[in-house]
Amino acid sequence: MCDLPAAIPFWWHLIRNGQYILQVRQRREAKGPVPVPPPVPHSPPPGHPEHATPLRGQSQGSEPRRPRSLSGPFTFVSASVALPGGAPRRGSPGAAVMALAIQALRVLCASGGCLEQGELQRRLPGWPSAEKLAAVLRDAQRFTLVRRPGQAGAGAAAEVAVVVATTPVRLCPENGAGCPGQCGRLHLCKYHLKGFCRNQLASSRKECRFVHNFYSDHNLRILKQYGLENLNHDELCQLLLQNDPSLLPEVCLHYNKGDGLHGSCTFKTSCTKLHVCQYVLRGQCRFGSNCKRSHDLLNPECFEKLERQGMSSDIIEKLPSIYRNMYDIKNGKRNMNDIEDAKSSPCKDRKPSSRRNSSATNDDEPEQICLHHLYRSCGFKGKCIRTHFHLPYRWQVSDGKTWKDFKNMEEIEKAYCDPKNVRFDYAVTESGSFCVGFQDMCCGFAKVRRLSTASSVTKPPHFILTTEWIWYWKDEYDMWQEYGKQGDLHAAATVSSDDLEKAYLAKSSPKLTFKAGRHEYELNFESMMQKNLHYRTERMICRRPKFVSQTEVENTRARGFKHTEGFKSIPAHWDKSALPELGFKLIELDCSSEEYKKVKVDFQRTMPRAAIKRICRVQNPSLWELYQWQKDLMQKTNGGKAADERFLFHGTNKKDIDAICQQNFDWRICGLHGTVYGKGSYFARDASYSDNYCGTDSHTKTMFLARVLVGEFTVGSSDYVRPPMKDSQNFYDSCVNNSSNPSIFVIFEKQQIYPEYLIEYQASARYL
């Protein structure tokens, strides 16, 4: 017999739970029938452990026992969710939120990777409340929230909130190259994920050496870490394809610039990138059927490139939505509250809320004004990703389609350089007067932008027409004071404008502490506020450029570079008669010289049958000083220890040689032949590797042997646009393919490179 006191609570709980369920059913019946969302059928994916081993007490041929489901056809169990830091206990509020998050992620992946927020709510089992769903969607590791234009039709909203499935899980770039398995990434054949691995064919002579199973021991451990083990094969493919940029072919940016059938792309039909409108893949092309770029990913040229990369026809059909989801994940990670604030507030009422808004400029390369064009001429010409303009600043207003220059640009710049001005008033039409707001960067409801040259702290002192940014704080009398300057009423700060500018651009920390007199302060780059750490008083800060008139620009260009130390840093073995102030000279080396022999030995170590025609030294004083400046900077940052410097090879096309010799390597312009270890310029230890990337339009090939400051490095990743952090304050200097024995280096800052030698050769031994 059972013990009565123990049995009573057990039956009492059953009765109470039954009454509660009955009450819920009665309330639902009173409200009328609830529309049932279409279920997402669940069956354990092929290869999942549920197929492999029967549970305890279950025979081999019986129906697999499933864990208790929360509701509907899903089989998620809160206690089985293993996330970094440990899973919440079953029944806890955290477990319920986590289970709902995984359900939502699976519904999204089964629905093409994204859904409108309202539609997602309707499709989830049990139809959770808007509040519960909003709490779940705050998880930025799983969800990206964006606004997209609503569907056309009567009563359609102008914009709708869309949820995009997101994950930090990636494929391991070291898979197949000796990865010990501690990488925290999936070991999987990328062609299998894309839908077509040639080594799977019956006619294939060899088996694929990569794993074709999402649920191998290693992969299942990674999936469980992120709560993805219940997703089936197709859902995981959808999730990874729209999150891992290394899996999709790039869109050719040169095709999207210039006129003609192939835009400004010089590779034309031999280009390995997709010739398709980049804006249509983002869902942003305003020209529609009138666009001069292709909107068809299924055209023969694109389709052939996609098939060559192992894309199945099913995946190719999904690519437009996958590219759009990827773009939103990369650029749309915002909280829904921020989205609502931005939507409800007109442009003129918006206040700056971040470091990006406060500067009224964009430090991205495409929105910088090209310094080389300002100096004399840009070697990259129409291929240059930077803006070509005759001033170091440019003010423009958007008409909704294109950016148009302001006529009174110098007046606007002069007003903007004074920190006390928050706007500039000017008359646009006879019917009214309008103003440019410097805080929200708007003119009425139209967006305004200011383009400028690179910040002066990012270039050596001899560079001219860079933008000198000055930092100010507002005192108790509403007067703007410059940092580092001694005032009548205030002690000078221990940091100057240059110090703040370097910290601001480094983005290693949102805060910086300093002293002024006996007080200690904290400066917040995000809120653009300064706080006294003792009294807790706060002051506004701002960042404005130093004004330069058009006359000063013309005079500075006429004077040329500021060579304060002459040519003291130039190597002693350089030809002193060939040192141009701008540009470069090629000095052919004597084949009997030690310099020639050293380069030859390094080159023929892996290219013994190649015939060297000539080796030239590149003499570019401007680039050399920039390289030495970066070298000194890295040494100071490294506590006085010299940076690791190596001679590395880089293969290129002949048409890019002059531009590289004049302006250095730039992967955005010279082309990107791979992104496995990051988006940067790739250099190789072995000449034989770089030989694969040399142009083949003639019998003679060209290859650079460059000085490269590799510094401290780590294994790269396809989604890196800069090296990762090595500690809380500093970044690595470069990325590599293998940290213990690197043969491929990725450099993200071109100041770390000097193109020292140019080697012309033929692959055959005809000239030996």
UniProtKB/TrEMBL annotation:
Disordered: region residues: 29-71, 334-364
GO MF term (any one): NAD+ poly-ADP-ribosyltransferase activity
Keywords: Cytoplasm, Metal-binding, Nucleus, Phosphoprotein, Repeat, Zinc, Zinc-finger
Composition skew (Pro residues), residue ranges: 34-47
Localization: Cytoplasm; Nucleus
Main location: cytoplasm
A GO cellular-component term linked to this record: cytoplasm
Family: Belongs to the ARTD/PARP family.
Protein name: Uncharacterized protein
Organism: Corvus moneduloides
Taxonomic path: Eukaryota, Metazoa, Chordata, Craniata, Vertebrata
Gene giving rise to this polypeptide: LOC116442531
